[in-house]
Amino acid sequence: MKISRNGLYLIESFEGFRAKAVSLPDGRYTIGFGHAATAREGMIINREQAEQLLLWDLIPVEEAVRSLVHAPINQNQFDALVSFIFNIGIEKFKESDILKYLNQGQMVNAALAMNLWRRSIINGREILVDALIRRRAHEIAIFLEPVGTRPAAPSPVVIPLVDNTLVSHIPNAENVKEIKPIPQSAAFEIAENETVKEGKEKNASDLVEDDDQFTTDSDNELLNSHDTENHLKFIDDTNQDAQPNAANVVKITDDKDEAITNDVIAKVSNESVTSDPVEDTKKTNSKPSSNDIANYFMIGSGAIALIASVSELIRFGVFTGGTELTPNIAFIEMIAAVGLIAIIIGLLSKLKS
Q1: What is the DSSP letter of 183?
Q2: How far apart are CA 67 and CA 71, in angstroms?
Q3: What is the pLDDT of residues 30-49, one digit of tens each?
Q4: Torsion of the alpha carbons at 295, 296, 302 and 308, rounded to the nearest 10
Q5: Position 269 pLDDT exceeds 90
Q6: Domain-by-domain residue ranges, the chain?
Q7: Does the global pTM surpass 0.85?
Q8: For the segment 57-67, what is each residue's pLDDT rounded down to a tens digit?
Q9: Which backbone phi and psi does 177 adopt, to 5 degrees?
Q10: In 69-200, where does DSSP find H-type helix?
């Protein structure tokens, strides 16, 4: 089994093409697609020559996969392993857990173990490199891609759960510093102008943007170059410099608060000028007072007493002369009179108020 054209494209895309030899920190040179064995100062090649050198460099890597991996693997897995080993080195691969998982037939665990190789020493510091994160993601995706029909994993059936075995490999979010705009930068000025234009108060978090938006044209040229060392150094320096000046942040907050205060004062002044006394009185009286509640209660209670009393008198036949007056009837008539009086007093009090 040899590397396929897709595997070759994968390696070339992440190694990057260098037509002229570039010096390395250890004194060697690299050219083409990561070729260092015969690279010399001032050496220049084209893409075809670079690919031939790459195929020559991959010969020992392919042999290592064929001799070290005893479990059966498909073409996609072979391509991913060649790309991975070419990146980390054959000796490191021999000592890694990836080889153990492969020979035990645990392909998923082998793929997850590949994802741990994402750090590098740049300028004397061990950091997490974004390019290595992307490379590992592509290699793992190709490694897990079956040859032929892809097995389905429908969401309602295969419900994802958190893999607690990988929690120790995930960075702690509590230790991540909050990224804020760089003072006196173009992005900072745009954020301030948008705040004033919209007339809305924004929190400091609303002004947070991604670091990639703060690069200048010269920075973009550096990012687009194939000089990985300078690229990573630029990223590291940017992260160190991307610390806002506390004095400027406080000043912006004070100016914003002052603008909001003036806006509130102007709004209150406009409302006081355009307010209508009659409408204000209606708004004040829109809710019932304690006196109104007492009046409503007196009218309601009196109406209930009067209706109940009249109903009893009708039942005894007082209005039709069908019965004689008794003490009970007199008591009922007294209740009717009290209810009527309560209604009258309540209505009069309501009219006065």
Answers
A1: T
A2: 11
A3: 999 999 999 999 999 999 99
A4: -170
A5: no
A6: 5-147, 199-272, 290-352
A7: no
A8: 999 999 999 99
A9: -80, 145
A10: 75-88, 90-95, 97-103, 107-114, 130-144, 186-198
pLDDT of res. 13: 96
306 vs 200, more confident? 306
**Tokens coding 137:** 């993601």
Q: By C-alpha distance, which of 162, 133, 152, 143 is closest to 101? A: 143
Provide φ and ψ at 32, rounded to 5°. Answer: 65, -130
Closest by CA position to 222, among listed 238, 239, 209 = 238
* Catalytic machinery residues: 15
The gap between the terminal CA atoms of the chain, to the nearest Å, is 101
Q: Give me the helices (H) in the chain, please.
A: 5-15, 47-68, 75-88, 90-95, 97-103, 107-114, 130-144, 186-198, 217-224, 228-241, 246-274, 277-284, 290-316, 327-352
Domain 5-147 has CATH 1.10.1760.20: no
Which residues, in sequence order, are CB contacts of 3 under 8 Å at separation 6+?
A: 11, 58, 62, 78, 79, 82
Q: Residue 108 is which amino acid?
A: V
Q: To which residue do tokens 């709004």 refer?
A: 267
| Residue-wise pLDDT tens digits, 198-249 | 554 444 444 444 444 433 444 444 344 444 444 444 444 444 443 334 334 3
